[in-house]
Amino acid sequence: xxxxxxxxxxxxxxxxxxxxxxxxxxxxxxxxxxxxxxxxxxxxxxxxxxxxxxxxxxxxxxxxxxxxxxxxxxxxxxxxxxxxxxxxxxxxxxxxxxxxxxxxxxxxxxxxxxxxxxxxxxxxxxxxxxxxxxxxxxxxxxxxxxxxxxxxxxxxxxxxxxxxxxxxxxxxxxxxxxxxxxxxxxxxxxxxxxxxxxxxxxxxxxxxxxxxxxxxxxxxxxxxxxxxxxxxxxxxxxxxxxxxxxxxxxxxxxxxxxxxxxxxxxxxxxxxxxxxxxxxxxxxxxxxxxxxxxxxxxxxxxxxxxxxxxxxxxxxxxxxxxxxxxxxxxxxxxxxxxxxxxxxxxxxxxxxxxxxxxxxxxxxxxxxxxxxxxxxxxxxxxxxxxxxxxxxxxxxxxxxxxxxxxxxxxxxxxxxxxxxxxxxxxxxxxxxxxxxxxxxxxxxxxxxxxxxxxxxxxxxxxxxxxxxxxxxxxxxxxxxxxxxxxxxxxxxxxxxxxxxxxxxxxxxxxxxxxxxxxxxxxxxxxxxxxxxxxxxxxxxxxxxxxxxxxxxxx
Length: 554
Hints:
Strand order of the largest sheet: 6-7-5-8-10-12-13
Strand content: 15-25%
Shape: elongated
CATH class of the largest domain: Alpha Beta
CATH topology of the largest domain: Rossmann fold
């Protein structure tokens, strides 16, 4: 007993290195999750601790967590300075493992921008969970991601926008020379097609839209955009002809990028068009509508806002959202209650999805901010910005596809947006998807693509295997004699545990925990060469999911 007391004092007086690094910022709860050896009477164990060490009081059995597997929750009235109790319990022969029952770390990424906490829209589409993986800016292959913003004018030097302004790498500003030979002199940040000039008028609407697309994030200033880091190509337009010319500018820039392997041009992935023409059939402006397919063929999706009126554009027409192109994404407006805004248009055949667009916070002219930006003009950049953000995720295969088959990559990202929508009753029968934008779901869709096998991608069923909740384990070879390979795919990014049992329910190897790497499949190896022949059951669990597969050892 004396030795045990000395051991306890020794353990409790040591400063744990990890906790020293944390500067004791993480204070554990009073509960300890303990896994006991098979057959241990937990109540007798607790009594034994108190009998052996009189000073050891306050340890109690609180809850049977998973008694089948030996998991129990103990509680202890501890001194906050004493933080090695789990280590002491683990040293007991009856205990396999013990740890403080800490609160989980929610892996959202919250910026320090002071106006973020008023941005209900960003929370609703689950952007913080995506920001924990990427905040935008560049692809996994270091391509600078560009959004083309078509609008009347912009406050391009707003402090929350200036660092995300696109800079044409082929142009020397203000030398009065067309350095990159694209027909536009000094187009350093895009072009003002309204006046044939690289100078923009300062306009509210374009500044509001730009802030949602890419107000710099985590800079202790204003709100955060969908992308904390991205490059905004500014294109001033007002007439249909200017819209068409701007689209050509975008086409030329992306096509040039594709053909020079990034040496020239710009990696534009999406255009934002928060404008249109009410009750005008698409065929009335064929030049406008004809631009979407060519843009898509070079890898550019186009997002458009529908009308701010409560009518069916399938019946009354709308430019551009009633136009037909697989590369055009048409957006309507939803509010904080996930209702279609009363003065927002709809169309079961024409309008693809809804997005937050009422009372949103964004940048305003003269270095100010606006907290009530609304209309479909606000909903549109949430979707366009999300498309750009998806290209920044760490999946090499998506970017390789964007360079070898840009149209296919555009379709893939479009499908991620559509398949990832949250079903909304108010949009059922009024939009193609019947749902509202959810960027985290869209990210999970791309994760599913990235971990899928080539044959699953070709068959087009990778989303059914992974994204639809049908998580999968592949065990091979099965039957096995030497090394068992486990190929594990999931639609989430959480830690999972691996356990193996025989037919008697006995665990045949120590449990192991592994962290899922986003956008990579998990391949584990287990040496079973010395195991007795027979049938075994492998169990993977995590994030309230459990998958079990059977294999045979020869």
